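Anyone else keep sequences and structure tokens together like this?

Example one:
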Amino acid sequence: MKIAIVSGKSEGPTELNAFDNALIDAGIGDVNLIKVSSMLEKKTEVIELPKLKAGAMVNCVLSSICSKNKGDTITACVAAAIGDKLGCVVEHSGVNVSNEENRKKALEMVKYMMHKRNEKINQMIVEDSTHTVENIGSVVASVVYINDEILE
């Protein structure tokens, strides 16, 4: 299994447009995202996001948040832990909470998931995006599941 971990942030004239612009910033704005739960296969490989087919159906774990309040600091975060038998992914987001606090919470959750499965963590990846809202803002962070069918 291969995954790419991406993040983006943007503004827009509406929450939907801000969200779409954040997806474009993350490199996943031209595909259909299918939210999945949080499991990875053993020996999952983390790669750079390849060029995806426009309109492809793409599985992902997605963290996102929007705000219309000027001055709000918004953060979206994903954390992935990979072990010998499997891996786990979590997503977390917040408003006016420090980036460090969001990352810490995501790490706590993914470590707990691996612990409950008696799985040792061999690799840990955290990705986040933070933005201070100017008008209407959005941030996203995502673990994108890569397969040959979605590649351009």
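And example two:
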Amino acid sequence: MSRANPLVKVATAVMVGCLLALAACGPDTEADGAETAAAAAVTPAPTAQHLTLSPTVARDDPGVFDDRIVFGQSAAFTGPAGQLGTGMNHGIAAAFAEINRAGGVHGRRLELVTRDDTYEPELAVSNTTELIEQEHIFALIGAVGTPTSRSAVPVAEASGVPYIAPFTGAAFLRDPKLRSVINLRSSYNQETEEMVERLTEDLGIERIAVMYQDDSFGRAGFNGASAALHRRYLEPVAVGLYQRNTTAVKTGLLDVRKGRPEAVIVIGAYQPVAAVIAWAREIGMDPVFMTVSFVGSNALAEELGAGGKGVIVTQVVPFPTDTSNPVVAAYREALADYAPDVEPGFVSLEGYMAGRLAIAGLERCGENVTRACFLSVLRNAVPIDMNGFELRFSREEGNQWSDEVFLTMIGEDGDYIPLDVLPKDVLGSEDK
């Protein structure tokens, strides 16, 4: 079946969006005076990076100008989770650059202002406040992490600023009472359900332990894994903890070893997860290791090197090297045009899709875009066709556009392999 290019401005999409949000898409009135806005540079850094543009007239909603719309991103660009924020930024910026080359959205360019929160909640709050109150952004996009989002979302909610496509599957972000949050990805509950289903059905494993980062992110993953086990009348055979932004994982790993697990679900970012796996093998543990998409798959494989073989990672976006998938092909072309030296990966693909989601919302609002219209059309039931990857919004499933979970494994060469079921040889040693 033929698919329309979502980057082409389609009159019917605009009409549908505005009819669904008529009250929010009313006439705009130009604000008195002039404001100077900021735009993100190509590469994120700990401080905002932006170009000073010629003053133009701002409209009623902050961040909306005659010639551009300004988004903001507070994410980890440095520290143990730095590659996650960088990956999301590359993908979002590639999507924005792609639409800008085509003339923008209804004649407006999309720009991005960044702040580095190093994956710390306190910085996420101050960054979010600064982006809203000083940079006057239209919407926030591509935040990284559960603890940072838990702290930043109340700021966005209080200001009525859209909080789009955070890089986290935490359950609290899927509360339908939230007015500003729009999720793109599947939840951690869905990812951990897939893990437990595959372990029990494909491999017959029931002795499953959980090791997690001791904060809201880790607890979200732990709760999802525990619920999936309970549905099968099981419980974790052991639990281990470690602190955020550290690789001091030995104590938690020794707690996990006491349960003699056949599989360990690890909830964390790439550096500590790699440390858990490396130390486990150092002390003679050889269970099946599984982790969620937040880990940062490319970064994890790089950290593990030759020791990564057999590690399972659930994903929430398609395989980033599968160019037979039209949305992947579009992503790779956009990324190559924007940042030709950047290697394609799962995180930047998610960022690209997040950018495309924001673009779809803006397109449906028409020329008189407002935050209210933007949020309204991103909460309606009209599907979004992203080069054949169909997104359907579900308030019941948690204010999110996708329920997809994909299974991948690090192969012998360090590259990821797509899976439908877990292979028996992932069990490794004969004593399992």
